[in-house]
Design goal:
- One of its GO terms (biological process) is DNA strand elongation involved in DNA replication.
- Forms a ring-shaped head-to-tail homodimer around DNA.
- This is Beta sliding clamp.
- The chain has three domains: 2-116, DNA Polymerase III, Chain A, domain 2; 127-252, DNA Polymerase III, subunit A, domain 2 (DNA Polymerase III, Chain A, domain 2); 254-367, Roll (DNA Polymerase III, Chain A, domain 2), CATH 3.10.150.
- The longest helix has 12 residues, at 7-18.
- The chain is built from six helices and 26 strands.
- It has helices spanning 7-18, 71-80, 133-141, 203-213, 266-276, 327-334; strands at residues 2-6, 32-38, 41-47, 51-58, 60-63, 65-70, 86-92, 97-102, 105-110, 127-132, 158-166, 169-177, 181-188, 199-202, 219-224, 228-233, 236-241, 260-265, 286-292, 295-302, 306-313, 315-316, 321-326, 341-346, 353-357, 363-367.
């Protein structure tokens, strides 16, 4: 294999694929990126056996061929080359070395046989539909903060994506929960998604997809089966295994009859929570919310730091209520509210609180209270 490629184009694609490669792996070939030069392009492929990414980038291919190279080392070399430079890549099959030249720089990298590189992509994916970059971004950004990091409850370590009906309208719904808070966001069901199985998209896959969304404007093609999921973004294709587990019945934890309603200006409320939480302990992050007609009083205290109290105007007309929350969880939810006002529906100090945007019914957040 022999080819010449622009450094900027190579670096952009390498940045995408090398982030899939684990820093520590017991299988040497998984530390490598597969490079394949053919008909005017260089194809880069990396995998960790659960997630696979292939990206094509234009190149002047003199001699077609394929090899593998250490992903992180290769990326670091290209990253440190001068802007605007041309990179010549040549693989000698006899020596098994990959030579990289740019200006007066020359690097030789040891390669592993391309035949050893595992193939994850492929297989039958019966359901396929298109989403705009903005729609996929909405589903991810407004739910990912609630993904659990607790490995024992592995079925919560991702976003649950499924078709559902909401007020007689078919929707594509994304749900994430860690047991303390829950995020549920929906968009109109795309053509081709009807009848799709409910799938749990792993946390690492969500992070890699999110990086690619920022660099695409067009539609993203989503294909899936019960065990595998594929996203096609222009020149990049990301294939992932799904979490093999059953997502809990999240509808049961969304209360329908919470009768105490609080409406606050989202920005000023979030700022007040942020200020008061400076006093709360690092471990509990607890703050108390005391509600009376027309006002909401936030307070926090700790033996080490002292106490804080802040009162804000609020639209509240029910009986007085005191309820405690983890301030970080509360801030995470308030950060997702895109409108000016947030609506809190509560029953009592021990029951889940439902948070919505006043103007947008497509997103629901549930937050478990704390004893303060």
């Amino acid at each position: 294999m022999k080819l010449t490629i622009e450094r900027a184009a190579l670096l952009k694609s390498l940045a995408h694929v090398q982030s899939v490669v684990e820093r520590r792996t017991t299988i040497p070939i998984l530390s490598n990126v597969k490079l394949e030069g053919r008909s005017g392009q260089l194809s880069l492929n990396a995998t960790d056996m659960d997630l696979d990414i292939i990206e094509a980038v234009p190149a002047d291919v003199v001699r077609p061929g394929a090899t593998t190279a250490p992903a992180h080392t290769f990326y670091e070399i290209v990253r440190k080359l001068p802007d605007g430079s041309q990179v010549e890549i040549e693989h000698d099959a006899e020596s098994g070395q990959l030579t990289l030249r740019s200006g007066r720089s020359k690097f030789s990298l040891a390669c592993l046989p391309v035949e050893d590189f595992p193939v994850l992509s492929g297989g039958d994916l019966p359901f396929s539909f298109a989403l705009s970059a903005a729609e996929l971004k909405t589903l991810i950004d407004r739910t990912r903060f609630a993904i659990s990091t607790e490995e024992t409850r592995y079925y919560l370590n991702g976003i649950y994506l499924h078709a559902a009906a909401s007020d007689g309208v078919d929707v594509l719904r994304a749900v994430a929960t860690d047991g303390h808070r829950l995020a549920r966001v929906e968009i109109t069901l795309p053509d081709g998604a009807a009848g799709m199985p409910g799938i749990i998209v792993p946390r690492k896959t969500v992070a890699e997809i999110r990086k690619l969304i920022d660099e695409t404007d067009g539609e993203i093609t989503v294909s899936l089966s019960e065990t595998k999921l594929k996203f096609a973004f222009g020149d990049a294709v990301l294939t992932s295994k799904l979490i093999d587990g059953t997502f809990p019945d999240y509808e049961r934890v969304i209360p329908a009859d919470n009768d105490k309603v609080l409406v606050v200006d989202c920005k000023s409320f979030a700022q007040a929570v942020d200020r008061v939480s400076a006093i709360s302990t690092e471990k509990s992050r607890a703050i108390k919310l005391a509600l009376e007609k027309g006002t909401a009083t936030l307070s926090a205290s700790s033996a080490e730091n002292g106490s804080a109290v802040e009162e804000i105007e609020a639209d509240y007309a029910s009986t007085p209520l005191e309820i405690g929350f983890n301030s970080r969880y509360l801030m995470d939810i308030l950060a997702q509210v895109e409108g000016e006002s947030a609506r809190f529906a509560m029953a009592d100090a021990a029951s889940p609180t439902v948070v919505r945007e006043v103007t947008d019914g497509g997103a629901i957040y549930v937050l478990m209270p704390m004893r303060v």
